[in-house]
Amino acid sequence: MFTPRPIGFVRSPYQETSAVPRGLGAQHQAEGVLEILREFEPGLQDIEGFSHLYVFWVFDRSEGYELVGQAPTDDRPHGVFATRSPRRPNPLALTVVELLRRDGASLHVRGVDMLDGTPILDIKPYLSSIPMEKLRRGWLAEAEERRAQQKRD
Ligand SMILES: C[S@@+](CC[C@H](N)C(=O)[O-])C[C@H]1O[C@@H](n2cnc3c(N)ncnc32)[C@H](O)[C@@H]1O
């Protein structure tokens, strides 16, 4: 198909996976920098106007995959394509970050959940046209409801 190559690397406060917040209700507020390689810098023209970005990246420190497994957000198994697990057939990841500022080829962002040094494959402006009331959150909503019920009991 094609051989992916990094357009840059993430500078993140996280050195190991255990440091990244996970589980139900985890907040991703950590700040980081998307350091884009000089040769790709012209491609950042006009990116400053967008508040949020999609960042496509590689789980470069993940090994193998599991088609059905347990997510940290639930005690029941789910198919890998119904989760955001790092252990997937193609180790591709997608994170929405808030763009704080651009400094040349460096994009300062909030909301990183990647490890320091993670390769970035692509960046696109975040645009969502799906109204909140049309979104369904599948097993995640059910897991949250069970958790809330347990707290009430
Ligand atoms: C649940 S995944 C979600 C990633 C992305 N937001 C997505 O939805 O595709 C996030 C986890 O991936 C792991 N992770 C982060 N950077 C990684 C890397 N470079 N290689 C392997 N695992 C990584 C961390 O444990 C982090 O908690």
Walk me through what this model shows:
With 153 residues, the protein is mainly β. The chain has a single domain (8-152), classed as YaeB-like (Elongation Factor Tu (Ef-tu), domain 3). Helices cover 10% and strands 31% of the residues. It is built from one helix and eight strands. The protein has one helix at 138-152; strands spanning 8-11, 31-36, 52-58, 68-70, 77-79, 92-103, 106-110, 119-125. The strands form two sheets. The protein has a six-stranded antiparallel β-barrel. Strand 4 (68-70) and strand 5 (77-79) form a beta hairpin. It is globular and about 55 Å long. The mean pLDDT is 95. S-adenosylmethionine binds at residues 17, 20, 22, 59-62, 84, 86, 93-95, 113-115, 118.
Topology of this protein?
Elements: E1 8-11, E2 31-36, E3 52-58, E4 68-70, E5 77-79, E6 92-103, E7 106-110, E8 119-125, H1 138-152
The protein binds S-adenosylmethionine.
Q: Globular, elongated, flat, extended or rod-shaped: what is the shape?
A: globular
The CATH superfamily label reads: YaeB-like
CATH class category label? Mainly Beta
Structural class by helix and strand composition: mainly beta
User: Mean pLDDT score, rounded?
Assistant: 95
Over all CA atoms, what is the radius of gyration?
17 Å
CATH fold annotation? Elongation Factor Tu (Ef-tu), domain 3
Largest sheet: 6 strands, antiparallel, barrel
Straight-line N-to-C gap: 53 Å
What's the tally of helices? Answer: 1
Cross-sheet strand order for the largest sheet: 1-2-7-6-3-8
Task: Please state roughly what percent of the residues sit in beta strands, choosing from under 5%, 5-15%, 15-25%, 25-35%, 35-45% or over 45%.
Answer: 25-35%
